Amino acid sequence: MGPARGVRDLTNRSSLRPESVMWQGILTLGKVFRRVRLKMVEWRVSDSPVPYHEALAFMEDRVAKIAAGEAEEMIWLLEHPPLYTAGTSAKREDLVDPDRFPVFEAGRGGQYTYHGPGQRVAYVMLDLNKRGRDVRCFVRQLEDWVIAALDEFNVKGEIRDGRVGVWVQRPDKPKAADGSLREDKIAAIGVKLRKWVSFHGISINVEPDLSHFEGIVPCGIRDHGVTSLVDLGLPVEMADLDLALRATFCRIFVSKLNATSEV
Hints:
Layout: E1 7-9, H1 18-29, H2 31-36, E2 42-46, H3 52-67, E3 74-78, E4 83-86, E5 103-105, E6 112-115, E7 119-125, H4 128-131, H5 135-151, E8 158-160, E9 163-170, E10 182-194, E11 197-205, E12 225-226, H6 238-261
Parallel strand pairs: 2-3, 4-5, 10-12
Antiparallel strand pairs: 1-2, 3-7, 4-6, 7-11, 8-9, 9-10, 10-11
Helix pairs in contact: 1-6, 5-6
């Protein structure tokens, strides 16, 4: 299966910004890749919204090829048209407005979530056979990656026991009934593994229409809201977040891979 529509290959220097070429050099120069015999991770960005069924078919094909040693690992940055996806733990009653947008069975872990324009989705297709078969560690790396990317904009993302995703405190909102600061969700995480190769991944709200989340109970959590970088008052564009994701990916995944591969 070839690339999805409107996809730019970020491993092709002719399609990279100068800062991305520098980022690519960081990835390929580290001795860690020689030690564990990993090829360079391929990065792609889709310039227009990708239909969900096309993205899912592409991931299925790519993951099979990665598992067979026929393709490199990949990070795919994209947006979707407005839609809801249901994870393996989704509850029917959490689909509040089933007719609002198309609903897809995602096959990933988790419950209902929303995808749409203004939200950056990063599909993460990495081979955990080479990175360590530790699901909890991998999910924590995804959380750390989101937190590190948000920190590039001086946003403090946090994780909470019993609440999936990444959260931010809202001192600008009225306090909760127990006197604590309210917290809103800014990023979702949901993954699936096949032959220890990951797919699905993360989504970070840059400037989506937050009212679109009202058609579901996001991730089954009723007592907290949803926010975005722009909702927090930050004039962040998608390209800014993409640069932060690429830079911090090295810091989280390459440095930790280096630590686990030391003799």
